[in-house]
TrEMBL record:
Signal peptide coordinates: 1-25
Location(s) in or outside the cell: Golgi apparatus membrane
InterPro entries: Exostosin, Exostosin_GT47
Record key words, sorted: Glycosyltransferase, Golgi apparatus, Signal, Signal-anchor, Transferase, Transmembrane
Name under which the protein is recorded: Exostosin GT47 domain-containing protein
Keyword hit for Cell membrane: no
UniProt record similarity statement: Belongs to the glycosyltransferase 47 family.
Annotated Exostosin GT47 domain residues: 37-375
Topology relative to the membrane: Single-pass type II membrane protein
Main localization (coarse): Golgi
Organism: Xanthoceras sorbifolium
Length: 445
């Protein structure tokens, strides 16, 4: 126990040190960029709303000890010592990653009255742990009230200027975890942050949005790939493009072992019929039909090596819904140039509109309604095999073209790489646009 908190304190220390890294402001000034309508002010918050939360990284026994993944500003430790771009990234630490990237955003202003948007560096998902898994489990409607109190008491004019409409924050979990109705007691699951009228005006960037909400927007799950210069990105893209695709379809995940019919079970059944041992494979044009990466019990979570190589060698990657409709695996697969196969619109099309334009899905993905597979006996294999080879090649090209805007590059990247917009840049552009139109809508300019 003592050892764990020492480790936590150690990461915490480095986090602090690097926040005041002197090279930063020099770099910011050297970026040529038009900041008109793009100014962002980072709201100063007491450390109890962000850095202090990291010190409790080993406190929640029902949840993983996430201390090791705080390294590298939330990118996690490198997969191995000589790796340049690959990390054991925990997607729920996107708040740290985002905060670090905000610090090198070229259009920061100290003056909130000049800002087009106000960023709240609040680690909402980390603060939620005490309600989700910790001692505050019966007070989950309180999540966010302390922050609100602070925003309305300290420099209240910052909030008051636009009644919070210009504020945004990152909440690195599915919105489902923050949407517990206020009047249900004791709570079934989740905190009520997004149900609080106090935050109705604030834009929340989440990993998965609700279908009917207007205050949150989904952004890509972070994967394990975080290149820091253009060369590293381009050499990966080249590897993806040249990779031999030995299996037709791949599923990396768990579930599907219960008797009740569902899409994961259908996938498992279809694959078991068609999966063969590596050496004695029944092949179709030298292709393995189906490849399952068994990720039961979370064994893949911080171990990208388990699934990235198989994904690199697969043509299609199946993305069935699990506990919730979206999955990090969708983005891992795209990074590997594996064409995603979706079974419901909530898995991506109705979620990631900022990063993956909804009208483009036919060009880079396959859609097979899950009901047709589970209840009508449609075979995924038949659908995928009927797609002409030329079309498959075009789809993969599109996946590779879209890939850079779905990855989060490493903080402190080379200036050249910065000209390629990544998931963070796309999210900031769209947040600024959304806030600007929101301010027009409520006509309080
Ligand atoms: C860390 O956990 C301890 C014990 O559960 C708690 O008393 C403390 O308030 C927590 N700190 C933060 C910053 O959440
Ligand atoms: C990686 O480097 C660290 C520190 O230099 C060392 O302690 C560790 O053993 C190395 N790990 C491997 C797998 O080489
Ligand atoms: C939360 O409430 C439930 C039911 O009222 C109770 O059994 C449980 O002990 C409470 N948990 C805590 C941590 O107070
Ligand atoms: C949210 O904005 C509306 C006006 O659009 C305003 O009436 C309301 O007070 C604001 N909420 C908060 C908590 O500031
Ligand atoms: C190539 C191959 O083994 N195909 C089989 C896949 O599984 C289905 C049944 O689900 C068989 O009909 C195919 O022959």
């Amino acid at each position: 126990m003592a050892c764990k908190s020492t480790v936590a304190a150690f990461f915490f220390f480095f986090f602090l040190i690097s926040l005041i890294e002197p090279g930063l402001s020099y770099e910011i000034q050297s970026v040529e960029s038009d900041c008109t309508n793009r100014w962002i002010h980072i709201r100063r918050l007491p450390s109890s709303f962000n850095l202090d939360l990291l010190t409790n990284c080993s406190e929640y026994s029902l949840y993983d000890n996430f201390c090791p993944y705080l390294l590298n500003h939330g990118l996690g430790p490198k997969t191995h010592n000589r790796s340049h771009s690959w990390y054991r990234t925990d997607p729920f630490l996107l708040e740290l990653v985002f905060h670090r990237r905000m610090l090198e955003y070229p259009c920061l202003t100290q003056d909130p009255t000049l800002a087009n948007a106000i960023y709240l560096p609040y680690y909402a998902a980390l603060d939620a742990l005490k309600y989700l898994y910790g001692p505050e489990i019966n007070s989950s409607s309180q999540h966010g009230l302390e922050l609100y109190k602070y925003l309305r008491s300290d420099a209240a004019e910052i909030w008051d200027r636009y009644e919070g409409h210009d504020h945004f924050l990152v909440m690195a979990r599915p919105a489902w975890d923050f949407s517990q109705p206020l009047n249900i007691d004791p709570p079934l699951w989740g905190t009520s942050f997004l149900e609080l009228p106090e935050y109705y005006n604030v834009t929340a960037l989440v990993l998965e949005a609700r279908a009917w909400s207007w205050q949150e927007q989904a952004v890509p799950y972070p994967t394990s790939f975080h290149p820091s210069n253009l060369h590293l990105l381009e050499s990966w893209l080249k590897r993806v493009r040249n990779s031999r695709r030995r299996s037709l379809m791949l599923f990396a995940g768990g579930g599907g072992i219960s008797a009740t019919p569902n899409i994961r079970r259908s996938i498992r059944n279809e694959c078991q019929d068609n999966t063969t041992d590596d050496d004695a494979s029944v092949n179709l044009n030298n292709q393995q039909i189906c490849y399952i990466v068994d990720c039961s019990n979370g064994i893949c979570e911080h171990d990208p090596i388990r699934y990235m190589k198989p994904m690199l060698q697969a043509t299609f990657c199946l993305q069935p819904p699990g506990d919730t409709p979206t999955r990090r695996s969708t983005f891992d697969a795209i990074i590997a140039g594996c064409i995603p196969v979706f079974f419901e619109e909530q898995s991506a099309k109705s979620q990631y509109g900022w990063h993956l334009p909804p009208e483009m899905y036919d060009e880079f993905s396959v859609f097979i309604p899950k009901e047709d597979v589970v209840f009508k006996g449609l075979k995924i294999l038949d659908v995928l095999q009927s797609i002409p080879k030329a079309k498959v090649r075009k789809m993969r090209e599109k996946v590779i073209e879209l890939m850079p805007r779905l990855m989060y590059r490493r903080h402190g990247s080379s200036l050249v790489l910065k000209t390629t917009k990544d998931a963070f840049d796309v999210a900031i552009d769209a947040t600024l646009e959304r806030i600007s139109s929101r301010l027009k809508d409520v006509s309080i300019q």
